[in-house]
Give the backbone structure.
Amino acid sequence: MAFLPEDFVVPTLVAGLRFRIRPITVHDVVRAYDAVMSSRAELWDHFGGVTRWPRADLSLEEILIDLAWRQREGELRRSFSFAVLSTDETRLLGSVRIDPPMRPGADAEATFWVRSDEDGASVEEELEEFVREWVTTTWPFKTVRYPGRDITWEDWHALPSVDHAS
């Protein structure tokens, strides 16, 4: 089964009370680099053990390459990366990713983060509530897994891998 039905229209803009979510592009590179590097320690605590991201020496060029790849993956409908922006879109607050499942038992896997200097946990809590509803009501998935949240990264990593080539 394909990750998404061919007739599914991928959302291009959604909004919460304190943020807007839209596909991330290479034009977000400076804001993304600032958000990632200003929150590097917290992001490493959450993602680093599994993904080795973000490294302390991560460069602006590497972020640009990553954003270009993520933008292209979205255009090809293989995975989706979204910028979480302030309502005026001047500040990147975080990111949301929706990917095909890497482990069995889900239709998709979603990860997200909020920069560490953004109003404590309240924005992250608002984003988590918003993302969970958005992914289950707007997207065509019955079961979404949230690695690092609903399942620890260690438990997720211990699951068998899904063979996407089949």
Observations:
- The longest helix spans residues 120-137.
- The CA atoms of residues 146 and 152 lie 9 Å apart.
